[in-house]
Design a protein that fits this description.
The longest helix is centred in the C-terminal third of the chain and has 23 residues. Strands 1, 2, 3, 4, 5 and 6 form a six-stranded mixed sheet that branches. This protein has a single domain, classed as 3-Layer(aba) Sandwich (Rossmann fold). By secondary structure, it is an alpha/beta fold. A hairpin with a 2-residue loop joins strand 3 and strand 4. The radius of gyration is 18 Å and the shape is globular. It is about 40% helix and about 20% strand.
Length: about 220
């Protein structure tokens, strides 16, 4: 089975505006493609995604289209710009909407839809915050069910304050970013294949019942 990677570009810019985050995503896609992984980059800003924490907020909400793609992938990469030192609002909204997946568990095991998927994070910006964004986003993904491989984050951060961003600043030549984007792609691909071959067996429903009994004593 060919592995599938879905990369959510959480830039604040709608298409066809050039995205610096998209430029770094392109590097990841090159690596994934070379590894035989089928890739799709989806720019969330191009969809009418409503605010909320359910799987469908109604009134033309297009999150269900994105959510269907998320459930079909093996690797989920969240890519976001830095804004005032934190992840952008589109990225925050994506994590909020994924909260709805908790109630969409497997009927037999109770596992959330993101179980047996691998999560990763890409960040671009001109200010401090990359480590904090990656830490929070990867932690969020683990709570949603994702497995995180080693070195599952890659970022580019330019000079603090207003100035050239990834494309204009020649970020494609930045050694650390070029190194970590390769680590991210190779390790997440390896981990995704491991999970295809050896799915996590944990039965959350049974553990929930055991927790209820322990809590009632």
């Amino acid at each position: 089975m060919k592995l599938k990677a879905l990369i959510l570009n959480c830039t604040l810019k709608p298409s066809p505006t050039v995205s610096n985050t998209g430029a770094l995503i392109a590097k990841a896609i090159e690596e994934y493609t070379a590894l035989g992984v089928e890739c799709e980059e989806l720019r969330v800003r191009d969809y009418d995604v409503k605010f909320g924490v359910s799987n469908d907020e109604g009134n033309g909400d297009q999150w269900p289209e994105i959510y269907t793609k998320i459930k079909a992938c093996n690797i989920l990469v969240i890519a976001t710009p830095i804004w005032f030192g934190v992840r952008g609002s589109v990225c925050q909204m994506v994590l909020e909407r994924l909260d709805g997946s908790y109630g969409d568990g497997d009927t037999q095991t109770g596992q959330y839809p993101l179980y047996n998927k691998v999560g990763a994070c890409i960040v671009t910006g001109n200010e401090d915050g990359a480590h904090d964004i990656c830490a929070n986003t990867l932690f969020n993904l683990t709570h949603l069910g994702c497995t995180i491989a080693p070195n599952s984050d890659s970022y580019w951060v330019g000079d603090a304050g207003p100035g050239p961003s990834y494309i204009e600043a020649g970020g494609e030549k930045h050694l650390y970013t070029n190194r970590t984007i390769r680590y991210l792609a190779h390790n997440s691909t390896y981990m995704a294949q491991l999970l295809v071959d050896n799915p996590i067996p944990t039965n959350l429903k049974e553990l929930d019942e055991a927790a209820k009994k322990a809590s009632s004593n």
